[in-house]
Amino acid sequence: MLRHALEGHGHAVVEARDEVEAKQRLAAVRPTVVLSDLRLPHGDGFGVLRAVKEQDSETPVIVMTAYGSIEDAVAAMKEGALDFLAKPVDPEHLRLLVARAIEQRQVVTENVALKEELVARRGMPNIIGDDPKLGKILATLARAARTDTTVLLEGESGTGKELFARALHTLSPRAERPFVAINCAAIPDALLESELFGHEKGAFTGAVARKLGKFEVADRGTLFLDEIGDLPMGLQAKILRALEERCFDRLGGTTERRVDVRIVAATNKRLLASVAAKQFREDLYFRLSVFPVVIPPLRERSGDVPLLARHFIDRFCADLRKPRLTLSPAAAAALQAYAWPGNVRELQNCIERAVILTDGDTIRPPHLNLSSVPPGAGDAGADASASPWAQVDLSGSLTAATDRITAEVEHRKIQQALQAAGGRRTEAAAQLEVSPKALAAMIKKYAIGAPASR
Known about the structure:
Layout: H1 2-7, H2 19-28, E1 34-37, H3 45-55, E2 61-65, H4 70-78, E3 83-86, H5 91-120, H6 132-145, E4 151-154, H7 161-171, E5 179-183, H8 189-197, H9 214-217, E6 222-226, H10 233-245, E7 247-249, E8 256-258, E9 262-267, H11 271-276, H12 282-288, E10 291-294, H13 305-320, E11 326-327, H14 329-337, H15 343-357, E12 362-363, H16 365-368, H17 398-420, H18 425-432, H19 436-445
Parallel strand pairs: 1-2, 2-3, 4-9, 4-10, 5-6, 6-9, 11-12
Antiparallel strand pairs: 7-8
C-alpha cells in the first residue's frame, strides 16, 4: 500500500521485508529517504535507523509505529530519525512528510557541494555553518550568480553580508574580474559621489588629478554597495541612472561613461520604512530589490555557533602563535545560550578576546566575558514593570532594536489603515502617505490578510 501510494506521486521505491533485507538493500543503493516500521519480523526499525546513519548520517529516516508508543518514537528521533508516523498511515500525510524529507536532503546536498566549490575557487572565503537556512541561501545565491540580476542582501549588522556578496561574485561568470566594495555609510556625503563616480582634474578644490570611481574600477566585475540605506538622497538619482542605463558622468566631466557592472547592495535597515518616511527613493528601492536575499541572524542558526567558535579559535591561535585551545563544556554551553545581538562579528571578537586572555589550554566562561543580562537591566527600579517600555524587546544593537520596533509599528499601522479603508488599498495608501506599490510590497512582506468586513 505504501509503495503504491509513493509511486503514485512519482517516487521510485525499493522494498525490504525486515532489518536483514534492509541492510542488504542499503549496501546496494543509497536512498534519498528511508521509511521503516519500528516493529519488524526480524530485527527492528532501530537497527534499520542505525544502519542508515552508518552509511550516510544525512539520510532522513521516517519511522512508523502502530502501537501508539510515543516513547519509542521519541527514542528513534533521539537516534536521528527525522519524524514518525502513527499507523494506519494517512497517504496524504505520508506524501507531505516524504516531500519535506527530500527537500531537506537536497538542501544538505547542495550546501555541501556549494561549500566545496566555494572553497575551491580562488579567493573565496569559507562560509562556516551547516544550518539548512544557510544551505538555502547558498543555493539561492548560486542561481542568482548565473545572471546579472541586481541582488539586495538584507540582514542585521555582523551577519556577514559582504562575505555572501563575495560568494555571489565568485560563483558568477565575472569571478575573474574585480570585486569592488564601498561602504556608503563610512564615507562623508561630500566625498561619496567622487568615490563612486570619480572626478576630473580641477573638478573641485584639491582635485589635482583625474580619479576613477568605484563604478569604473569595477567595470566587467561586481560592485558591492554596502549599507545602501545610508545613501544620501542627492546621490540616489545618480545611482538609479547608473543601475538602469549603465552610464554616468564623472564630477567635473562632460563625457558620458559607460560600464558593465553587476550590482550587489546590502543594508541592515528596513528600506520600505525608509521609503515610507521619504528617506529613500521608491524607484531605487524596487530597482535594487529585484532579487532580495535575507541573511538570518546568528540566533536563528544557533547550531552553527560551535562550528564558528572552533573556526575562530583555530584562526586566532594560529595568528597569535598559541597552542591549540579547547572549549570547556561550560564555555561551550555559554556560547550556545547567548543571543549574539552582534551576530558573527560579535562572536569573532569574543573568541579573539578569549584566546588572548587564556593562559592555559582551555577557554572557560570568564574568558568569554558574556552576560545573559542586557546592559542596564535592573537599573530602572521597582516601577519599571509599570512602563509600557518594560514590555518592549530592546536587546541587541540600536539598529536591531529599532528595526524590531519599526517592523511592529509598520505592521500594526498598515492593518489599522486597511481596516479603516474597508480593505481598499488605494485609500489605505493615501492615509499612510505611501504609494499603492509600496503598500502592496509591505502587505506582502508582513503577510497581512484582508480585514474582516464591517
